[in-house]
Amino acid sequence: MQLTTDAAVKEMVMSLQDRQHVLALDYDDSVGESGIPADACAIVGRIRLLVVEKSQLPESFDGTVESDLGPIYFKSFGARFLDETMNARKAAYSGYELMGSGGLLTPNLLIEKI
């Protein structure tokens, strides 16, 4: 899998990331305080690109997506919800979106530091 980002996404991630942090693509709130898994139908509506301390990344993040930001960890069981080629970009309205080769994966890609 491959993820490319536009300048706005790069700028946002770089403002949050330092040497102790890695990137993770989370689709069920398993990183952070809520820890609430989503069901399969809700996954596409809640995808987050997280900047997280490497030591806080759960072992379930067992796969990586190659990107222009470096490796991004993700749960390999969720690969079926993603595309082989993806693009994270600034949305036309506000916020960020994640596009796949087949179309829009989420219109609300959250980018946050945990």
Outline the structure in words.
The protein is built from 1 helix and 9 strands, in the order βαββββββββ. By secondary structure, the protein is mainly β. It has a single domain, classed as HesB-like domain (Hypothetical Protein Aq_1857, Chain: A, Sandwich), CATH 2.60.300. It has a 9-stranded mixed beta sheet. It is globular.
Describe the structure concisely.
The protein is mostly beta strands and 114 residues long.
Summarize the helices and strands and which ones pair or pack.
Layout: E1 2-5, H1 7-16, E2 21-26, E3 48-53, E4 63-67, E5 72-74, E6 85-90, E7 96-100, E8 103-106, E9 110-113
Parallel strand pairs: 1-4, 1-6, 2-5, 3-9
Antiparallel strand pairs: 2-3, 4-5, 6-7, 7-8
Please bin the fraction of helical residues. under 10%
Total DSSP E strands: 9
CATH architecture: Sandwich
Oligomer: single chain
The CATH topology, please? Hypothetical Protein Aq_1857, Chain: A
Main attributes of the structure:
Hypothetical Protein Aq_1857, Chain: A, globular, 114 residues, mainly beta, 1 helix
